[in-house]
Amino acid sequence: MAVKIDRHGQAAILSHPEIELLFAEGLQSDRDRALFGVCLYTAARIAEACSMLTEDVYTSTGRVRASVNIRKAATKGKLATRTIPVIEDLRSLLTVWQPHVGPIYLFPSRHPGHHWRHITSDSAAVILREACKRVGIEGASTHSFRRTALTEMSNAGIPLRVIQQVSGHRTLTELQKYLEVSDAQVRGAVSALSMLSYGGKQRLNDLQPEFPSVRLTQSPESLKNSVVDTD
């Protein structure tokens, strides 16, 4: 698998220990953990997460909604609005972040005079690079969270049509490009062929050579003279 190095190549899939490390030690603020939590737990693209509206995540009383909206205008290709259920891990991150949200955007610009704007994808990429460097994770990018989420769902046996509903991909072919196949999965796939085992097979030690070996009880010269001519 090609790993992303110096912003070249495909974004790495994050392992469970790497996710734990990033959220515990790499990401330094409630905003950063909430931002990348949205990317991980909704499979959102970084641009979609950065431009989320506060009202699409919280009720008028400040409670986290049961589902969040990723609006059509923010999606790649502006295909359709996606509604993603909020799992408990994401709810916890969003609850902590709620007192600091902007009046319009979930993640307002870091610049004090630009709270009517949202944080940019480039700024998010810088935040993540610093976080990964802090904990020694290589090959990750903002896209890693989306790839990790979709691959995790696929590994859990979720049908691709359902995953496509979450990811918002136009076609299943586009979705499959995101999904990583591990060496262990390949070994497991080949091992599944054992169900095709045929009956009556012999163990290796029971197999006899097709042509019995000849013990050299005579000299090579005498053996040569005893060969029968078959022409």
Task: Give structural notes.
The chain has a two-stranded antiparallel ribbon with strand order 1-2. α1 (16-26) crosses α5, α2 (30-42) packs antiparallel against α4 (88-97) and α2 crosses α6 (144-155). The protein has ten helices and two strands. By secondary structure, it is mostly helical. Helix content is 41%, strand content 3%.
Short structural summary:
The chain is about 40% helix and about 5% strand.
Indicate the proportion of strand residues: under 5%
- Given helix and strand content, the structural type is mainly alpha
Q: For the record, give the distance between the C-alpha atoms at the N and C termini, rounded to a whole number.
A: 59 Å
**Strand line-up of the largest beta sheet:** 1-2
What keyword list fits this structure?
231 residues; mainly alpha; two-stranded antiparallel sheet; 2 strands; 41% helix; 3% strand; disordered N terminus; disordered C terminus
Q: What's the layout of helices and strands?
A:
Layout: H1 16-26, H2 30-42, H3 46-50, E1 67-70, E2 82-85, H4 88-97, H5 121-135, H6 144-155, H7 160-167, H8 172-176, H9 183-191, H10 220-225
Antiparallel strand pairs: 1-2
